[in-house]
Amino acid sequence: MTGRQLQTIGIVGGGAWGTALATVARRAGRDVLLWAHEPETVAAINQTHANPTYLPGVDLDPAIEATSQLSEVATCDALLIVSPAQHLRDILGALQPYTRTGQPLVLCCKGIEQSTGLLMSQVAADVMQGATIAVLSGPSFAAEAARELPVAVTLATGAEDLGRDLSHALHAPAFRCYWSGDVVGAEIGGAVKNVYAIAAGIVVGKELGSSAQAGLITRSFAEMARFGVAMGAALETLIGLSGLGDLVLTCGSEQSRNMSLGIALGRGATTAEVLSERLSVTEGVATAQAMVEIARARGIELPIAEAVHAIVSGEMGVDAAIDALLSRPLRSETE
Ligand SMILES: NC(=O)C1=CN([C@@H]2O[C@H](COP(=O)(O)OP(=O)(O)OC[C@H]3O[C@@H](n4cnc5c(N)ncnc54)[C@H](O)[C@@H]3O)[C@@H](O)[C@H]2O)C=CC1
Ligand SMILES: O=C(CO)COP(=O)(O)O
After folding, report:
1. What is the domain extent for residue 196?
2. Residues in the annotated binding site for NADPH
3. Model pTM?
4. Are residues 54 and 177 in the same domain?
């Protein structure tokens, strides 16, 4: 039961996650219209009810329609914004003339804007002053959500009644949203876990063992918590689905594009080699740079994120970065 009219859901972004969220919203009983950047994705969804480029092997409900016009998708009651993080500003700028006051914009991308160091909600507030912003984040592989496997996520907004309404509007039998008032916390967890998933992949690619993997994930969470709290996140949120939950998922599965980049780096590939073979987005690369720049400016110590950035940018080799991490001075665990 929702308090406001959220029957039509517009999805802005026809990649794997946008398409998977379209299937979720449809199963939740909503009318769904998806905007995609590429005309061929729009044609495939409308004509063959599939998105073979970004979400192969999934049959879409024929009631899910696609459009190339932002003006059309903007007529929906709520909009899920599912672009890559580095394209968010341009897409919102193009969408802005068609949006309405009070229309919820649910940001589903996970990253920090590289050129400004802004979080996704801050980019949205910059482009669309006064917009009604929410964040959907948490452990959720697109292919699993689309196959109707159980998924639980965080839906964060400043207004609890909107969080509750959006959570109900997107609630499908296997898709659960838990609402939260901590927008910054929800987006920081989702953004920075991508950086640590690259590190976890390097551990696998270098065959450093299960003990190293557990140690790395735990120290990564310590960095996530230090960074997040300094940026205004609540620790409770970082311990939840959008923080620890997503860190555990993406540091533990080769399905993660970020972790699989790390595995390839650990086996000797370069970032450019791996990314040149991908159409899909690997958010941790740009976010690593944004994150270390923020951390340096604010005096937040993030040795693992620094190491990931040094490796993906080519400033340091994998072996040298591992040596540097292992030779850091000993310290109290909770410092
Ligand atoms: N795939 C997943 O399992 C999940 C992804 N996300 C997040 O969702 C966001 C989108 O990721 P995916 O849907 O996986 O994307 P994807 O990697 O499947 O596809 C790339 C997307 O980039 C778009 N794109 C490429 N060039 C563009 C341009 N110049 N302007 C605008 N868009 C352009 C494509 O149209 C496509 O939608 C990311 O921030 C990701 O972290 C969040 C949760 C799960
Ligand atoms: O965010 C995700 C799962 O929650 C997807 O992770 P990757 O982008 O690393 O594939």
Report:
1. 190-327
2. 17, 37, 54, 110, 142, 257, 281, 283
3. 0.98
4. yes
Instruction: Kindly state whether residue 263 falls inside one of the protein's structural domains.
Output: yes
Annotated binding site: 13-18, 37, 54, 110, 138, 140, 142, 193, 246, 256-258, 281, 283
DSSP letter for each residue of 277-301: T-SS--THHHHHHHHHHHHHHHT--
Assigned domain for 2 exists: no
Residues in the chain: 335
Whether residues 145 and 200 share a domain: the answer is: no
Task: Compute the C-alpha angle 54/55/58, nearest 5°.
Answer: 155
Told to judge if 193 belongs to the known catalytic residues of this protein, a careful annotator would answer yes
Going by C-beta distance under 8 Å and a sequence separation of 6 or more, which residues neighbour residue 270?
Answer: 314
Closest atom, ligand 1, to C-alpha of 83 = 10
Reading the chain (335 residues) residue by residue, the pLDDT tens digits are 457 889 999 999 999 999 999 999 999 999 999 999 999 999 999 999 999 999 999 999 999 999 999 999 999 999 999 999 999 999 999 999 999 999 999 999 999 999 999 999 999 999 999 999 999 999 999 999 999 999 999 999 999 899 999 999 999 999 999 999 999 999 999 999 999 999 999 999 999 999 999 999 999 999 999 999 999 999 999 999 999 999 999 999 999 999 999 999 999 999 999 999 999 999 999 999 999 999 999 999 999 999 999 999 999 999 999 999 999 999 999 88
Task: Output the residue whose Cα is nearest ligand 2's atom 6.
Answer: 256
Look up the CATH number of the domain holding residue 212.
1.10.1040.10
